[in-house]
Amino acid sequence: MRIVHVSHAWEGGGSGLYAAALADAQQRLGHDVARFGPLRRRERGFRASWSSPEVELAFSDVVRGAEIVHVHHLAGLSMDLPRLAREASARVFVTLHDYWLACARGQLVDRDGERCVGPDIDRCARCLAPHLWAPLPGAARLPLRRAPVADRLNAWTLLREQVDTFLAPSAHVANRLIVEAEHCALPLLHPIRPAPAPAPGPIRFLFAGALIPTKGAHVVLDAFAALPAGAGTLRLLGPAPPYDGRSDYAEGLARRVGEVPGARLDPAAPHPAMEAVLHEADVLLVPSLWEENAPLVVMEALAAGLRVLASDLGGMSEIAPSAGLVEPGTPRAWRAAMAAEIRRGRGRNAPILREDMPAHAARLLDLYARRRT
């Protein structure tokens, strides 16, 4: 079977890591597997973030002869790729990793940091004004540019008609995008061994994710700062990409960490090193302010036997039913939840194992075959 996997990235980020691991696993099972994206492009601007003749031309060559096109993310590529795949007689599967297809910002969070009820031409035009008017300054004082937003929302409507099967790691993501989807839980990308029994000592909290406002690292840092000194440690670990083109969030977080005894900030660890990172922690903290779908780090933490505290948002209760769910964005609530973990002390839960990648890859191959048109 010839399969083309499409992703905006193949390293870093959950969707890129998953797409790469799945493509490799299906190739090891003896199939002809190609990867498509990202590309170096001349096009710039808002429209180029979701529509690109350059990308479409390059894809037309890759998709020739493919039986399956499995889309993971189209940011910076083109929302017209599923149509081109269908025209090439390929069946199209789309894994819903986040909300980008309906929300140009990807997380259903507006530029003021508020969670959004969903796409709407006027609402999106206000939220995206700096991008729609770039490079002009003062976008908030300029008229709303509704036409580009309408074009993108129309492209999302047309894309839905070209997809044979949407695959949803959580029911929540399918419900928010208002699509019919087959539930397809994500696997562990690599085996994670159960963590060894911890030695006595203060409880060790871990945040592992991007250092951007919507991931909420500042919330747990404020909560930790209010706990009794010496009761635990907090490790914040992850990449610090620009957010809305700015780096001040990560810089402010680093300054704040320096003022909080017991807290430390580390750069992102390579994914193969995550097992060791998890084995040095007791409780994973997931304080996201956006509606997370199915974070890989949560599944890895559960496999290692860590306890998990997570914002009561999105698909968290589905993928981590044993997690303690906490009011998002509220340091007082997080302080209370973390204090309860301190009272429990160090210790492990029974590991919660998930499907491994070889079995997952084979299951998807079977699904591809059963969904012949």
What order do the helices and strands come in, and which of them pair?
Layout: E1 2-6, H1 14-28, E2 32-36, H2 53-62, E3 68-71, H3 81-87, E4 91-95, H4 121-127, H5 129-133, H6 146-162, E5 165-168, H7 171-177, E6 182-183, E7 203-208, H8 217-225, E8 232-237, H9 248-257, E9 263-266, H10 274-279, E10 283-286, H11 296-304, E11 307-311, H12 316-319, E12 324-326, H13 331-344, H14 357-370
Parallel strand pairs: 1-2, 1-3, 3-4, 4-5, 5-6, 7-8, 7-10, 8-9, 10-11, 11-12
Helix pairs in contact: 1-14, 4-6, 8-13
Verbal overview:
Helices cover 36% and strands 14% of the residues. The chain is α/β, with parallel strands linked by helices and 373 residues long. It folds into 2 domains: 2-109 and 147-187 and 357-370, Rossmann fold, CATH 3.40.50.2000; 203-344, Rossmann fold (3-Layer(aba) Sandwich). A 6-stranded parallel β-sheet has the order 2-1-3-4-5-6. Helix 1 (14-28) packs across helix 14 (357-370). The radius of gyration is 21 Å and the shape is globular. The two termini are 15 Å apart.
How would you sum up this structure in a few lines?
The chain has 373 residues and is of the alpha/beta class. 36% of the residues lie in helices and 14% in strands.
